[in-house]
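Morning, I've got a small favour to ask if you have a moment. I owe you a coffee for this, so here goes:
>
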Amino acid sequence: MDIVLVPGLWLHGSSWDRVTPLLEEHGHRARALTLPGMESKDADRSGITLADHVAAVVAAVDEADGPVLLVAHSAGSGIAHAAVDARPDRVMRAVYVGGFPSADGDSLLTGLPEQDGEVTMPDWAAIGEEANIVDLDDAALARLYADAIPAPAAVLTDPVRLSDERRFEVPVTAVCPEYTAADLRTWVDSGDEAVSELARAKVEYVDLPGGHWPQLTQPEKLAQVILDAVSRTGRD
């Protein structure tokens, strides 16, 4: 099966490097995307918008040989969900790892400082998000910050545009790393606006205890979750 992997903010496609071989061992065609402007720290990010990132994912879906399993990390889930909205007939299932799809008109992420049209990765401990990095040792955490690529500010703050109600017919696997499946169900059931798209979707909730970056810290377990999602599509 064709599996398209979308990185989260501040990440290059290589962030999936420990996951893709485990999927390919099972005969799948795994393609990890590097989104526009995220090729390197020195790449030109001027003028890059959320629509550009969504278009890159849609293009990858269109280029696949057949139906796609679309996997996304963190805020990349909002980008992937917009691609599902654009191609609900091509995506068999979506897997959102540590992230939620944004609703129409919402932004992926707000509140982080912008400089010269870019947003750098914050110090997670300093902003009270220690749960994000709980399973990264000092060396791995240093590598994460050293490798992080500034994100185009418009990707974070542009409004998401969704228009096709068929997106809710595409099943979702919601992978819960630094929070639990029970937590996420509670947020959905309580009507939390941040997860309003999940409230209307067909969702399977999967716990993967740890920090926010299982593709780096638990690649084998995350790969198994993705393989399980493939099996839910009825394709091998």
Remarks:
- The domain at 2-232 is CATH 3.40.50.1820 (Rossmann fold).
- The radius of gyration is 16 Å.
